[in-house]
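Handout, page 2. Input:
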Amino acid sequence: MTHRGRCHCGSLAFELDGEIAEVYDCNCSMCRRRGGLLAFAPADALRETGTGEAGTYRFNAHRIDHHFCTVCGIAPYSRGTGPDGSPMACVNVRCIDGLDLALLKIVQIDGASF
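Output:
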């Protein structure tokens, strides 16, 4: 299955291959403020299809590039390395078109304690 998503204005669009059944609701200083629900996948499962300019924000261990739209400010996806060092991607599932959030298992993550 391929999921399609975008930022609010559509400048940053993406496709994500794979099933999404479980997402993470993190309470770290950034996730708590932006309110995203996160799905992680191997790096090659994410394709950036938009034509807009992405800004990038890094914090904490600087292992994840959090990309946001420089026009509307929405952060639809990130790229980085997982805990095992392998390349990974992360999408904010709230940016995926037509995804029924009520069907997803939401797992609370205590990122604030890391």
